[in-house]
Design brief:
single chain; alpha+beta; 37% helix; nine-stranded mixed sheet
Length: 441
């Protein structure tokens, strides 16, 4: 342990584990440090890992009897919500039933621990089976800097040295600020609070209630009443015998409206549709954590400098453009690209920013930064008051009118829609929103 590592990775979340897997498979000597008792112990998030990069890390992961994932997604739903009603756009297809799945639901404490076991297997098969380590229950206090270059880390009184450091510490990026890659504080209007409950059911009850077959699963996003007038939205994901139900809410907006995460979540659960959905379930977990809004202004001004890279949530790589909440897939891809950059740096014997800038170039060429850049207008539009107040109310009001049969002469749909528009918005506002939506999406 006194010898220098090729790389030290701080944080055994998805980004850190992905980087470690690539390093192990390329015979790099590294140290992966996690402050929790095990990988995932401190990670309370959970949702859908989109895309097929997981199959790149763990080929044919779906064949494992007890893999780290819960269900694959073949059912997508977007729900507009007012005080009494919901109006959903629903899509389900057997096209998504074949592996590698385009999305799998995960509970991170379970998934990260499983993925760490796969990393350990890769270490044991490498040339550094006894010299690379996953070290848990260790808090990194400082990234060691010499002449503004990262040369290792300090934990307590101990120091470990390396040619490079990958910071994958998550959104509470103390080390990112310490090395000078981000200002002291990120503005509150760029950050959200994620609140989640895990609710357990008898597995057959869950599968019947959500029409699941085998390991198929559903993701459901909610817009409108869910957040009680606060910027944000809701989500529901089906696990094996539980659901993950929760919200993401703007920190600044929540503070200004003097509402707490717990109160907003209880408000969401009291909606008649949600109340029926979770009936008979047992809450087995409650958690909350900070996430990026997807506004790229929250990103550090640079993602690398001499000897150090930022991956995953430490770089605020996340987006919700209305199609899905994407963060874990961004973390996984950034971890892969970060490790590949470190491997090239070792081949060249140069870990300076001049070499590590290839990380940002590769990230810019990947879907991660292309999506973040291309859908910024969508991020801003989705966080506008019209999208979490006026539009859901209008849609649900029209739905009530359209589906009500009351033994009176039935009006044409255009008249029903006009009445809903007049009550909740205006055609001019709808035209502006439609134009913004067409431009941003």
């Amino acid at each position: 342990m006194d010898e220098k590592f090729d790389c030290i990775i701080v944080g055994a979340g998805i980004a850190g584990l992905a980087a470690a897997m690539i390093l192990a498979r390329n015979n790099m000597k590294f140290l992966l440090i996690e402050k929790g008792d095990f990988a995932g112990a401190k990670n309370i998030s959970g949702g859908v890992l989109w895309g097929t990069d997981l199959a790149r890390l763990v080929p044919e992961y779906w064949k494992e009897k007890d893999g780290g994932w819960e269900r694959f997604i073949n059912h997508r739903r977007l729900t507009f919500m007012d005080e009494q009603s919901t109006f959903s756009m629903d899509f389900k297809s057997s096209h998504f039933d074949e592996p590698p799945y385009p999305g799998v639901v995960v509970l991170r404490s379970k998934f990260d621990r499983w993925l760490a076991e796969k990393v350990q297997e890769a270490i044991e098969g490498s040339d550094y089976a006894t010299e690379s380590f996953i070290a848990t229950n260790i808090k990194v206090d400082e990234v060691l800097m010499e002449d503004d270059k990262a040369v290792g880390i300090r934990t307590g009184e101990e120091e470990f040295h390396a040619d490079s450091v990958i910071i994958a510490e998550g959104v509470n990026n103390l080390l990112t600020r310490q090395v000078g890659l981000q200002d002291d504080y990120v503005p509150a209007d760029h950050m959200l609070t994620g609140i989640k409950e895990v609710i357990r059911f008898d597995q057959k009850v869950l599968e019947d209630r959500f029409q699941l077959d085998g390991l198929s699963g559903m993701s459901n996003e909610f817009v409108g009443y869910a957040t009680d007038g606060v910027e944000g939205g809701g989500f529901l994901y089906t696990n094996r015998d539980t659901i993950s139900l929760g919200l993401v809410a703007g920190i600044k907006d929540m503070r200004e409206k003097e509402k707490s995460p717990h109160d907003i979540l209880n408000h969401f659960k009291q909606h008649p549709v949600i109340r029926d959905t979770i009936k008979g379930g047992e809450v087995v977990e409650y958690s909350a954590h900070v996430v990026s809004s997807g506004d790229k202004r929250a990103m550090p001004r640079q993602l690398y400098k001499d000897g150090v890279l930022l991956c995953g949530e430490a770089a605020n790589l996340l987006i919700n453009a209305g199609k899905a909440i994407q963060g874990m897939d961004f973390a996984l891809r950034s971890g892969i690209i970060g490790a590949e950059t470190i491997i090239k740096a070792k081949e060249q014997g140069d870990f300076s920013s001049q070499t590590l800038q290839e990380y940002r170039q590769a990230l810019d060429e990947s879907y991660v930064m292309k999506d973040i850049n291309n859908f910024q207008d969508a991020v801003h539009m989705l966080h506008s008051p019209e999208m979490f107040r006026d539009i859901p109310n209008l849609v649900c009001d029209f739905g009530r009118k359209f589906f009500t049969i009351d033994n009176e002469p039935t009006q044409k749909s255009r008249k029903l829609f006009s009445a809903s528009v007049k009550k909740h918005s205006s055609y001019w506002d709808l035209i502006k929103i439609a134009f913004k939506g067409a431009k941003s999406l």
